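Hi there, hope your week has been kind to you so far. Thanks so much in advance, here it is:
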Amino acid sequence: MEQVLPFYVVCDESYSMENDIGALNDGLRELHAAVGSDPVVADKTRFCVIGFSDDAEVLLELSDLSEVTQMAGLTVKGGTNYGAAFTLLRDTVESDVAKLKQEGCRVYRPAAFFLSDGQPNYDWKDEFDRVTDPAWKARPNIVAFGFGAVDEATLAQIGTFKSFIANGSLSPADALHEFASALTKSIVQSGTNMTDNGDVTLQVPNEVPGFTELKADEI
């Protein structure tokens, strides 16, 4: 039975990203080259890109990166709607997992890498609760990255697995490059460490240059 670990990258495309979207697109292209050229990792992982601003859309459907000829490009749009991002993430994961299981795959809990540089313009808590609902077996582990004007307390809430915030030691472009590098390492290490007996652990770097890990508050 084929084993699959799905990865979702959920990226802010709001107007505040105008000066940095090019660096992020460069990083995603490098990720595509690294993962797509590794047959072992590409075979065991799948990758999806979701962009959000005033609304959200799937820019790259869940794919084997070795079969993708060109990485989807992010473009700057309007406001910052976290709720739309979480709604689409929930719906997309639900549909993708069902499809993979119909194809006979053994599917592991997805990982979602959430990136934002600003504060949300809309309510988002209800949508977030849906995507992290403990009763939903396919709920993704969320790793949150923030920089710019992002709110630290909000970011810490969103990262159910880990949260990182840019510490100002790198330029925004370099910080985005490190985000893409961390994402690449996570996919490669997670896919490589997946064993034939069914064991798999999501691998996320403990340290990301230019970022500080945030500790989630106990509730």
